[in-house]
Amino acid sequence: xxxxWVAGQPLVGRRRWLYHGGRADPSRPVPTRGPPPVSPLGRxxxxxxxxxxxxxxxxxxxELVQLGLSxxxxxxxxxxxxxxxxxxxxxxxxxTVIAGHLSNAGAHxxxxxxxxxxxxxxVAWPRALATITLGTTVGAGVLLLVRPVVIPSVELLPYxxxxxxxxxxxxxxxxxxxxxxxxxxxQVAARLRVVNAVIRVGSLLAFVAAGGDALDEWAWFxxxxxxxxxxxxxxxxxxxxxxxxAWRRPRGADIRRGCPFAxxxxxxxxxxxxxxxxxxxxxxxxxxxxxxxxxxxxQLGLIPLVAIARSSDRDVFEHxxxxxxxxx
Length: 328
What we know:
Layout: E1 5-6, E2 9-10, E3 18-20, E4 23-25, H1 40-49, H2 51-80, H3 83-103, H4 107-116, H5 121-150, H6 156-182, H7 186-209, H8 215-241, H9 252-273, H10 275-281, H11 285-301, H12 303-311, H13 313-319, H14 322-327
Antiparallel strand pairs: 1-2, 3-4
Helix pairs in contact: 1-2, 2-7, 2-11, 2-12, 3-5, 3-6, 3-9, 3-10, 3-11, 4-5, 4-6, 4-13, 5-6, 6-7, 6-8, 7-8, 10-11
């Protein structure tokens, strides 16, 4: 009389006769045909059609375009600049990576967390924008103080321009993109990344067309492209989500809450980027550039994992860490 279980579920259907040794037993149901098995291709199509699948697709497109175009900039600069100048350039960028993760005080992750738990994005975005502006300004001052000790071979003016480009403006753009992620508008986030990357390539083309081959010349072109890209991202954010740039005074509680995020990301940046300034400190300027090229090739292989992580950011804060596990 126990129910018959098929594929972990109790069988439901009309009762029919089962014959056991010539005797009918109407108390036992007959297994009925279940749904046809789903092919691996069908599972992939169903996954891509889900909300998370669509988000991952948009994040993958954005990462492919942004990292692909930035790699084009990277490799073209490796040929345009002198080997020593290119090594110095990559060392400065490495310093801004380490300082940027720490100086933004976790504003990006904190903004996603706040919005995922019900805070209005019109309140969270201005507060994050002010935190990033304040933190990266302090970070830029610290990098200027350590320049004579860490990388004295880079002149002060191009060093300052690179810091403004890759610390202040880069993280402000990242903050604007995070707004779209927090609002689950991955299409808008993808457009913002693509537009910013295309503008950066445009600044590189202008540099090459002008016959530039010196580090200080590229510093001015790079800063100009970063300024235009930041303005375009803010404009698209206003047009796409109706969020004009605004500043709210950062709260001490928010900065304390964001510090664990900042420490976590800056530790990762320290492991990824500290080697290039060290190479430069000991006079291996050209080798620092070669090492950066090899590191960039490795980053290209990480694009799918980065896209999955970005597409699940909002779900992680809203439903817990299991969201990322499910996505993977």
